[in-house]
TrEMBL record, chain A:
The lineage of its organism: Bacteria, Pseudomonadati, Pseudomonadota, Gammaproteobacteria, Oceanospirillales. It is an enzyme of class 7 (translocase). It is a multi-pass membrane protein. It comes from Onishia taeanensis. The keyword Nucleotide-binding does not apply. The modification FMN phosphoryl threonine is found at T182. This is Ion-translocating oxidoreductase complex subunit D. The chain crosses the membrane at residues 21-40, 94-112, 124-143, 211-229, 236-255, 267-287, 294-311, 317-335. Keywords: Cell inner membrane, Cell membrane, Electron transport, Flavoprotein, FMN, Membrane, Phosphoprotein, Translocase, Transmembrane, Transmembrane helix, Transport.
UniProtKB/TrEMBL annotation, chain B:
It comes from Onishia taeanensis. The keyword Zinc does not apply. It is found in: Cell inner membrane. Pfam families: Complex1_51K, Fer4_7, RnfC_N, SLBB. Residues 365-394, 404-433 form the 4Fe-4S ferredoxin-type domain. This is Ion-translocating oxidoreductase complex subunit C. It is a peripheral membrane protein. The gene is rnfC. Residues 468-508, 536-557, 577-604 are annotated as: Disordered. One of its GO terms (cellular component) is plasma membrane. Part of a membrane-bound complex that couples electron transfer with translocation of ions across the membrane. Its cofactor is [4Fe-4S] cluster.
Length: 360, 604
């Protein structure tokens, strides 16, 4: 029995509620930069998803006849909401967010038994469901008009969009301002005949799009650095994921720079950094041993690059994370550390069949 | 790589040792009444050898060791045995155990000392017998009988004796203070144990946050230069649990104790300073273990410090002397805050394994917050000094998947509590591991119940056989003695017709030979049984719960050992008789002698 606990004696955040609170704090640079470039729609996403997260968690807990208060205090539903909200296109409709959060909190998390029991990353389950069910809405990114610019949506327009009052995505006010693509998306649909340099020279995206995405990625990186500094996440997953992406991207870029993005392009133009620090590191659904985390992160990096290069979706962090979630039990069995006093680590599952012996 | 020479993980809890290291070790007032539990050590409880009403002196043996893994208990005050019965003892579940209660007048203190021995001259058998008769056990917490460990040589070759002065757990400073004041004696005790175990060198492992103890040791080593055995002092930065036996060996020698093995398997013996001091006092001063140094600390005490207290002293007396503020006391802990146990009452006796009492206030060691779900953050893995995956063990322990837990090396967990200390979800991980371990052991015990019954039956058979063999041997000896005067002249062969048990010389030779072979085999069987028992008892005795847990298993092994000894005794009786017969009547018959191992009647 350990009668002393780190949380009583150290200023490191060492209980789950505070861990999550620090996590939320670390998302602030990313969210602020997103808002700066893409407008208030980002905030509405985050706030709505966070609120739904808490509400749905409380609802399900009540239905499951569990105490609500201490569980909510772990802040994990809020984190899921914020992370999903930050991944959605700015100004996503309320209803979509609700669908996504039901998938995330109710299905992916609570139906599996609540925090700690979910094999899949809840935020990414919600995201993937929305992406498959509403591909159009989910790939429309606002042009980076900036928070204060007149070209962006007014508050009223935003409200109308979010509550679904405006009739559909492609009509209504400011549709031009809203139709947009991410750099990854654009580059993916680049005509084959065009060389990369020519493509970028043709200004395929609204002004400042690339710079905006780069700034956002760097802001997430800053938040990630805070997580690392506070030891809330290990270095293993982000490093191995980004390295795997860099190696693959570097390889294909070296082979054919005119049709492939550079490593920097792949790192900085999509959800790679956000995914590496905030999504893939979700401890519950990630591999758990130190070595396992390296394999897990590398696996995500490889899958992201495969889907980006060969798949139908421009970005792939959600799918890659979910696919690797499947492999976690397997990775965990094969990456046990070497216990002191053992010549080599255990591998795999070799449960002795005691009952057989008794039966014979 | 520097890391290779170290154990993985570890944590840095606040030491909180300053409060109890301000003053020298005080001597606690002589108690008027002591309660001496019979099971203050790993293994079988001792058996009382005094009666109610009997007068005893300080140091009189009041209970005798039972079986191989056990230790004597001695009266710790002068007075009268007033009761032998069940009393509450320090135990995590608040168990009661048979105790001997002695009452004195609080003034008279007459010692029953054994003769002083010079360990440099005395032979091993004498020294073993002395340790045996002094009730010395490991004082670090596990309470393993020292004489069993001292006889390690019969089982393993030892090259290094490690003095475990790390004392890495917060609060505890008993060894630190003992070293400051008795460094020379501790070193002397180490040399004594090194001699017994055959160790070629002594290494002292100590955390570098004890500069005064280190200086005292340096002085002691310098003063003892004349002695041939090299002693090296190795201070290292504090990190819990560097005082864990396996971790310390890894850190000092870069050797790993094999899973389910013992330090002795890799040629190492570990003792903590208090134990060495007690061993030396038992040999040099003839003083049995009747007192120990105990740290009294915690913010609910006005005068924390270390005291030398008689065993059996009620804790509340010691705490009162140290200025206990009842209102501020939130929890009383015996041992350290990481591996110790919380006590539910204050009037429990100090036992051999009580190294520390923490009278903690609410602010100091608040009750743990509610357990939250595991988020698999891996903090526990980073802290684990045994290279385990505590988070996985936790899942398996919780869902009672014992096979998987064992597969993930549950039994390599040293229950250090580092994982619980860092877990952000406040999961009392160690409690889960302990529960799983004892459940697994209980299952194994259930499964082998029939086997145990068989062993007990075998033991009874062996005893009957041994008695028969001895009787036969005595009868023969008498017969020979009776006819010696006549056969002296007539010389040997006439005796052949006398007894059917006495064969012809030719067959007698063959018989002798086969008996000798049988004797060798029986001796080997005894040694093997001893080895198994020593191993199992040593590897299952854990800090914080010296008794209980694996009683069943150890008891069974004790039965097997007793059986092997009975067999050996029977064969030796027969052998002696056969030798007599073969030697004929030329010499005086030697009485059937039983081996040194079996001369004490030790049946469980
Ligand atoms: S430290 Fe606690 S919450 Fe984290 S993985 Fe270990 S058991 Fe789970
Ligand atoms: S208690 Fe066991 S599992 Fe936990 S850190 Fe210590 S050795 Fe590792």
């Amino acid at each position: 029995m350990s009668l002393m606990h780190q949380s009583q004696v150290s200023r490191q955040p060492t209980d789950t509620g505070r861990v999550m609170a620090w996590l939320l704090l670390s998302t602030l640079p990313g969210i602020a930069t997103l808002t700066w470039h893409f407008g208030l729609g980002v905030l509405s996403n985050v706030l709505l998803a966070g609120a739904f997260g808490i509400g749905l968690e409380a609802l399900v807990l009540r239905l499951r006849r569990r105490t609500v208060r201490p569980v909510l205090a772990d802040n994990s539903a809020l984190v899921t909401g914020v992370l999903l909200g930050a991944s959605l296109p700015p100004g996503t409709s309320l209803w979509l967010i609700l669908v996504g959060m039901v998938a995330a909190i109710v299905v992916a998390k609570q139906l599996y038994g609540g925090l700690g029991q979910n094999p899949f990353n809840p935020a990414m389950v919600g995201y993937a469901l929305l992406l498959i069910s509403f591909p159009a809405a989910m790939t429309q990114w606002a042009a980076p008009h900036g928070l204060l610019s007149a070209d962006g949506l007014s508050l009223g327009e935003l409200l109308a969009r979010v509550t679904g009052m405006s009739s559909g995505m492609n009509t209504g006010p400011g549709v031009d301002a809203w139709s947009g693509a991410t750099p990854l998306d654009a580059f993916k649909h680049k005509p084959d005949a065009l060389l990369a340099s020519e493509f970028w020279a043709s200004n395929p995206l609204p002004d400042g799009t690339q710079a905006a995405w780069r700034n956002v990625a760097l802001a997430w990186l800053a938040g990630g650095a805070l997580l690392l500094y506070k030891r809330l996440i290990g270095w293993q997953i982000p490093l191995s994921m980004l390295t795997a992406m860099g190696v693959l991207a570097g390889f294909s870029y070296a082979v054919d720079p005119s049709h492939h993005g550079s490593p920097a392009f792949h790192w900085l133009s999509g959800a790679a950094v956000f995914g590496a620090f905030f999504i893939a590191t979700d401890p519950v659904s990630a591999a758990t041993s130190r070595k396992g985390k390296l394999y897990y992160g590398a696996g995500i990096g490889v899958l992201v690059m495969l889907i980006r290069e060969a798949g139908a979706y421009p970005d792939a962090v959600a799918f890659a994370v979910l696919l690797m979630n499947f492999t976690v039990p397997f990775i965990d069995y094969y990456t046990q550390p070497r216990t002191q006093g053992h010549a080599r680590p255990n591998r795999g599952i070799k449960v002795t069949r005691l009952d057989d012996e008794e039966a014979s | 790589m520097a890391r290779a020479f170290d154990f993985p993980g570890g944590i840095h809890p606040p030491a909180r040792k300053a409060a109890s290291t301000q003053h020298r070790i005080a001597t606690a007032a002589l108690p008027r009444r002591v309660i001496l539990p019979l099971g203050q050590h790993a293994g079988q409880p001792a058996e009382p050898c005094v009666e109610v009403g009997q007068r005893v002196d300080t140091g009189t043996r009041v209970a005798k060791a039972q079986g191989l893994i056990s230790a004597d208990v001695h009266a710790s005050i002068t007075g009268e045995v007033v009761a032998i019965g069940s009393y509450p003892v320090p135990h995590p579940a608040g168990r009661e155990e048979t105790c001997i209660v002695i009452e004195g007048d609080g003034i008279r203190d007459d010692w029953a000392l054994l003769p002083s021995l010079d360990w440099r001259r005395a032979d091993h058998a004498t020294l073993h017998a002395r340790l045996d008769a002094s009730g010395v056990v490991g004082l670090g917490g596990a309470g393993f009988p020292t004489q069993v460990k001292a006889r390690v040589r019969e089982r393993n070759a030892i090259d290094t004796l490690i003095v475990n002065a790390a004392e890495c757990e917060p609060y505890i400073s008993a060894d630190d203070m003992a070293l400051r004041e008795h460094a020379a004696d501790v070193l002397e005790g180490a040399r004594l144990i090194a001699k017994l175990s055959g160790a070629q060198r002594i290494i002292i492992g100590i955390e570098d946050d004890k500069p005064e103890a280190i200086r005292a040791l340096e002085r002691g080593i310098a003063a003892g230069q004349a002695h041939p055995l090299p002693i090296s002092l190795k201070p290292f930065p504090a990190r819990y649990p560097s005082g864990g036996e396996k971790q310390l060996i890894k850190r000092l020698l870069d050797r790993e104790v094999p899973s389910r093995g013992l330090p002795a398997d890799i040629g190492v013996l570990c003792h903590n300073p208090g134990t060495l001091l007690a061993a030396l006092q038992a040999v040099r001063d003839g003083r049995p273990l009747v007192s120990r140094v105990i740290t009294l600390t915690g913010e609910a005490l006005a005068r924390p410090g270390n005291v030398e207290a008689r065993l059996g002293t009620p804790m509340n007396e010691l705490l009162a002397t140290a200025g206990l503020d009842d209102d501020r006391l939130a929890r009383l802990i015996m041992g350290g805050p990481m591996m110790g146990m919380e006590l539910s009452r204050l009037d429990l006796p100090v036992v051999k394994s009580s190294n520390c009492l923490i009278a903690a206030t609410l602010d100091e060691l608040p009750p743990p917050p509610a357990e939250q779900p595991c988020i698999r953050c891996g903090a526990c893995e980073d802290a684990c000094p045994a290279g385990l995956l505590p988070q996985q063990l936790y899942w398996f322990a919780r869902s009672r998947e014992h096979e998987k837990a064992e597969l993930f090396n549950l039994f390599d967990c040293i229950e250090c509590g580092a994982c619980s200390y860092v877990c952000p979800s406040h999961i009392p991980l160690v409690d889960y591991y302990r529960a799983a371990k004892s459940e697994i052991r209980a299952n194994a015990f259930e499964a082998r119940k029939a086997e145990h019954a068989k062993h007990r039956f075998e033991f009874r058979q062996a005893r009957i056989e041994r008695e028969a063999a001895e009787k036969e041997a005595r009868r023969q000896a008498r017969a020979q003695a009776a006819k010696r005067p006549t056969s002296m002249a007539a010389n040997s062969t006439t005796s052949a017709a006398e007894s059917t048990a006495q064969p012809q010389p030719a067959t007698a030779d063959a018989d002798l030979k086969s008996l000798r072979i049988a004797q060798a085999a029986a001796k080997a069987a005894v040694r093997k049984a001893e080895k198994v028992l020593a191993r199992v008892s040593q590897s299952t005795s854990h800090k914080g719960q010296p008794q209980g847990q694996s009683d069943g298993e150890i008891e069974d092994l004790e039965v097997q050992l007793a059986t092997a000894r009975e067999n050996l005794a029977a064969i030796e009786a027969r052998l002696a008789a056969a030798k007599d017969a073969a030697a004929g009547t030329t010499q005086a018959p030697t009485p059937p002698s039983r081996s040194a191992d079996t001369d004490q009647e030790r049946t469980p």
